[in-house]
Amino acid sequence: MRDMLINGANELGINLGDIAVDKLFLYMDFLKEYNKKVNLTSIVDDEEIIVKHFLDSLTVLPHLDVKGGAKLIDIGTGAGFPGVVLKIADENLDILLMDSLNKRIKFLEALVEKLGLKNVKCVHGRAEENSRKPEYKENFDYAVARAVTNLSKLAGYCLPYVRRGGMFLAMKGRNYHEEVDGARDAVKSLKGEIAGIKEIGLPGSDIVHSLIKIKKR
User: Fold this and answer.
1) Where are the domains of the chain?
2) Which of 88, 91, 104, 199 is in Cβ range 3.0-4.6 Å of 99 for a Cys bridge?
3) Averaged in consecutive runs of 10 residues, what is the pLDDT profile of the chain (217 residues)?
């Protein structure tokens, strides 16, 4: 399992150190145990967690410029994907994890403490409401979301958090073309522009995901 994670990360161009790998496996064990009492994920097989949660989350990292640190908000983070995985892989990130369900925030707070992660804040609330608060509005270099919501709606949730010159990264599936075309006007009205789309195969599987990069003008 350890080799599967390390080699998969290498295929994505990411070198995970021993400490990061240890924390990811501690994360997996804690998630599976906590999931027995609070439903956080339907994915409980070790290999599936590595591919569909950990490696999928890591696909974002090569698209972040984190030299000297960067502020990132993970909107609708669920059980911490991709935000916690990104933080483990690169400690320079300053992360805010936001979710509308308090049971997930309670899990994340316990997880952050267990893993000893610094500069990680867990916030309960709805994205469309919190984005109006001055401490969050246009206050992040990056916003990221891994959600089933259509891109038009997702952009409305996420772009208000991104500073000018920053980036919203939407993690979507293989069939994104129609969704992107339908979101162009909404993105433009939010002072964004689609800056690129990257199709990424998940190592150890035949799954292909897409990363839609939206720049805040």
Assistant:
1) 2-216
2) 104
3) 96 97 98 96 96 97 87 97 98 96 98 98 96 95 91 96 97 92 95 96 96 96
